Amino acid sequence: AILKEALKEEIRSKTESQEYEQYFKEKVDEAIQELGASNTLVFGVHSKDAERLPKGVDVQIEDRLLGGFYVLKNGNEKYDMTLDSEVDALDAFLGCMLNTLYEITGEACDEER
């Protein structure tokens, strides 16, 4: 939990960078191409990312998001491209790796290190 919160804080601090802005725009363009501009797409984003979306797309503000976005296609299919889901996936991966390390070494993780 401590690692996950630290990771979230680090990611949150990077969402103001030029690199993040470029990443965000590229991912939005990919989503529009893959999901089809002819479909009804609604982008769920943090309010600070709303201005990064192309003009004319439907927006749903979700300030609980770290960054990234999700897309609702035709009102019923959701594609999650949020940074939150990336953190969750990384957290699960790290937990799995720690469990594997414990199984190999027989030593429990020391949380104070």
Rg over CA atoms? 17 Å
The tally of beta strands, per DSSP, is 4
> Helical content, roughly?
40-55%
SSE run: HHEEEEH
Shape: elongated
The major β-sheet equals: 4 strands, mixed
**Spatial strand sequence of the major β-sheet:** 2-1-3-4
Structural class: alpha+beta
Which stretches are low in confidence, meaning pLDDT under 50 for 5 or more residues running? none
The average pLDDT score comes to 85
Q: Brief description of this entry?
A:
The protein has 113 residues and is of the alpha+beta class.
Describe this structure in words.
The chain is an alpha+beta fold. It has a domain at 9-82. 48% of the residues lie in helices and 19% in strands. It has a four-stranded mixed beta sheet. α1 packs antiparallel against α3. The longest helix is centred in the last third of the chain and has 23 residues, at 83-105. It is elongated and about 55 Å long.
SSE order and pairing:
Elements: H1 2-14, H2 18-35, E1 41-45, E2 58-61, E3 68-73, E4 77-82, H3 83-105
